[in-house]
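TA notes, week 10

Several of you asked for a full example with nothing omitted. So below is the full record: structure tokens for the whole chain, then the designed sequence directly under it. When grading your own attempts, check the secondary structure regions first.
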């Protein structure tokens, strides 16, 4: 079973994502800050990371940069999720990640994008 790491400091948001993405038949790992995200990524090698940009300790952009520099984690697909929606942010993110979603998320589109990246279908 594929593992998806959700990195966000809002517990309610994480629970909503897990509920709405349950039909992807994936196992969810959860990190509430950037340091924890790096640790879980190294330990479990998730198939995909859903990464908030504004995080305590270490922001999402830094987490992404660190993961991209390491051979064991550089190919893990990353989808950024953020309330930041400026074009500059999107362009910066686009160079480092597979996609960028502005909060509130378009959950059907996110589900479709995850399916594409993991090459899995959903079960309704």
């Amino acid at each position: 079973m594929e593992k998806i790491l959700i990195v966000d400091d809002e517990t309610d948001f994480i629970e909503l994502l897990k509920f709405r993405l349950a039909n992807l038949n994936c196992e969810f790992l959860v990190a509430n800050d950037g340091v924890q995200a790096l640790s879980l990524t190294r330990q479990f090698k998730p198939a995909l990371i859903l990464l908030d940009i504004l995080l305590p300790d270490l922001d999402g952009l830094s987490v992404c940069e660190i993961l991209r520099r390491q051979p064991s984690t550089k190919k893990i697909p990353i989808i950024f999720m953020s309330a930041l929606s400026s074009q500059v942010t999107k362009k910066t993110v686009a160079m480092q990640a597979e996609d960028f979603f502005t909060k509130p998320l378009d959950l059907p589109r996110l589900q479709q994008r995850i399916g594409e990246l993991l090459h899995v279908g959903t079960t309704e």
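The radius of gyration is 13 Å. Use that as a sanity check on your answer.
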